[in-house]
């Protein structure tokens, strides 16, 4: 199964510092701090934990690790998921999200990981870190499991109303990301559409199809949603409204389906089979586990920002840190600039 | 599980004739003709089979049934799924789709069922049968399985670019359909969106949300795609681009997931469990089987047109015929007119 976690490139952790929002997410600070410690102990990451210093220190006391590899930068405020992103970013200057993003902007860290409010992270990142020249809209990428491995979906929710050019830029950024971070040479790019024929689609996709054909990308044409789970394309691009529907529907449907299967199996006669199925079901859950694939990279900014799932545990945070390191090590920002 | 198949209303088949496209679909004419015969034998339907007379007669010879209940209307041409719908409808005046739709228009049948080209059926139906006054765009409805039963999705692909008013009309038509054909009183209507909060969404959904709140429908607000498979709403409305993605992704993902599960189970030690799981898996497949829920009603026309799945077998055609009969018997067109 291809993913950045199996990427075989050389990673040197020296001098690459990753800022981690210690206060963001449902399981902060316990799991965020543990994830950072695990990243230090497992692959020698250099971390800056951003958040309320006393709280972080107390968490760190639980573990043993190389003290030189974790710094703390104090941030006294926390942005909640219920706050209006633009207002929160403007008013809470000393929040872990704003402080962490400023740290990246000022060179104190190379990338930022947060499991906090998606809206606040995206808005803050665009305002504070800024866009790569030539990118009109940064976009959020996610990895969806397929029967063959993973497909990289961009945009999965940052831009709900898109112009044709945005999608072409998404395709270029995704190609650089998937080639360099996930190790797939010349990745196949598909356009999410309601039919495979070129003339199919809504006003947006019809125009995007023509534009993508003119690029030097490995554009494989329209991909119907039915085909996405079979991994015919390495990348699928769409506007953030469609992408968010795909992402969330995948989550809901797979959960619902496993629930239905379980209820069918445990009904009556099949109970003994349910026992035998514990391991295969665990394997399947692992495949659909967002923790396994790290976080969602917010592509198109001058530095990398990774949005980890709100319910991330230590493993999810650790993998998001790993993902950042590979991204930075491979000069993805520079490569995106070159691709444009 | 709620569906029109369990609807307990009184159905009188007398005087209701349903026109069936004998030539449409991957398994025509064998399965289309068999489906019509089954509908006659199982619940006394009155059928007009439309298509090449000799071919239909030859198929009918295989079965015994009440000869008074099946008529044949000859149509010498067939529209293929690869033809451009508008051109095909205009040029093939003697095709089973055009002849069948004209039959409905002229009162020779009350509804039309076809498993043929979706584009040709939708285009032809709008042009030949015409819209209900006040409906700007007819829409295609489908039933998706949920953990609780079914959810009715409108539009699932007829209108890829929508104005806010279209979606309000979809919600009204769907409410009438689900209440009267599926027997759910005051059905809950959700708007497919990327967040539950009112202010979330793209330009279209933000405006539709406000409009739906002003109706007398049982509007339950935004529904995230994640929640759709859990059946919190009886109806979900969206534009045809998003709807088609949901419909096709559900099909693809459930197939992919069952494939993954099977491969996990049959690997190595779990083979004996696979045997025991044959029945539960059959039950699950049945739940996701489009044949079980009949066809997709094309709502908003002066008469009902049902698009059966292209791969329909006899059961799918038979259930689509049953669906038509319930629709006609319950005066759905009149009720939609009243609702507007």
- Kindly provide the radius of gyration of chain A, computed on alpha-carbon positions and rounded to a whole number of angstroms: 20 Å
Q: Strands of the biggest beta sheet of chain A: in what spatial order?
A: 3-2-1-4-11-10-5-6-9-7-8
The count of strands of chain A amounts to 11
Shape of chain A: globular
CATH topology of the largest domain in chain A: Isopropylmalate Dehydrogenase
Number of helices of chain A: 12
In CATH, what is the class of the largest domain in chain A? Alpha Beta
Q: List the uncertain runs of chain A.
A: 1-11
CATH architecture level-2 label of the largest domain in chain A:
3-Layer(aba) Sandwich
How helix-rich are the residues of chain A, as a percent range? 40-55%
**End-to-end CA span of chain A:** 29 Å
**Could you state the order of secondary-structure elements of chain A as H and E?**
EHEHEHHEHEEHEHEEHHHEEHH
Strand content of chain A: 15-25%
Number of domains of chain A: 2
Q: Structural class of chain A, please?
A: alpha/beta
Largest interface: A-B, 55 and 55 residues
How would you describe this protein?
2 copies of one chain form a homodimer. Chain A is of the alpha/beta class and 340 residues long. The first copy, chain A, has 2 domains: 1-135 and 300-340, Isopropylmalate Dehydrogenase (3-Layer(aba) Sandwich), CATH 3.40.718; 142-290, 3-Layer(aba) Sandwich (Isopropylmalate Dehydrogenase). Helix content of chain A is 43%, strand content 16%. Chain A has an 11-stranded mixed beta sheet, with helices on both faces. In chain A, α3 crosses α5 (118-128), α4 packs parallel to α5 (118-128) and α6 (164-181) packs across α7. Mean pLDDT of chain A is 90; it is low at 1-11.
């Amino acid at each position: 199964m291809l993913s950045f976690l199996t990427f075989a490139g050389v990673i040197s952790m020296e001098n690459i510092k990753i800022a981690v929002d210690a206060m963001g997410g449902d399981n902060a600070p316990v799991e965020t701090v543990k994830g950072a410690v695990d990243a230090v102990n497992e692959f020698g990451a250099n971390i800056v934990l951003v958040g309320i210093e006393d709280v972080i220190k107390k968490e760190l006391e639980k573990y043993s690790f190389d003290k030189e590899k974790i710094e703390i930068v104090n941030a006294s405020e926390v942005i909640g998921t219920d706050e209006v992103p633009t207002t929160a970013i403007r008013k809470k200057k000393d929040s872990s999200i704003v402080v962490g993003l400023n740290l990246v902007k000022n060179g104190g860290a190379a990338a930022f990981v947060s499991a906090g409010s998606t809206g606040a992270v995206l808005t803050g990142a665009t305002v504070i870190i800024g866009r790569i020249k030539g990118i009109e809209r940064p976009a959020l990428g996610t990895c969806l499991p397929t029967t063959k491995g993973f497909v990289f979906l961009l945009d999965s929710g940052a831009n709900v109303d898109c112009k044709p050019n945005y999608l072409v830029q998404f395709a270029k950024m995704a190609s650089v990301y998937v080639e360099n971070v996930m190790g797939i040479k010349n990745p196949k790019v598909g356009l999410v559409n309601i039919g495979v024929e070129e003339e199919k689609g809504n006003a947006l996709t019809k125009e995007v199809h023509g534009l993508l054909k003119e690029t030097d990308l490995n554009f494989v044409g329209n991909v119907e949603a039915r085909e996405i789970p079979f991994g015919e394309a390495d990348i699928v691009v769409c506007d953030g409204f469609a992408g968010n529907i795909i992402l969330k529907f995948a989550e809901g449907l797979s959960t619902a389906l496993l629930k239905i299967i379980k209820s069918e199996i445990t009904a009556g006669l099949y109970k003994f089979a349910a026992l035998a199925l514990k391991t295969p079901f665990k394997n399947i859950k692992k495949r659909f586990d967002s923790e396994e694939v790290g976080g969602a990279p917010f592509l198109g900014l001058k530095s990398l920002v990774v949005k980890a799932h709100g319910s991330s545990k230590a493993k999810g945070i650790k993998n998001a840190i790993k993902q950042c390191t590979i991204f930075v090590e491979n000069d993805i920002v520079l490569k995106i600039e070159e691709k444009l």
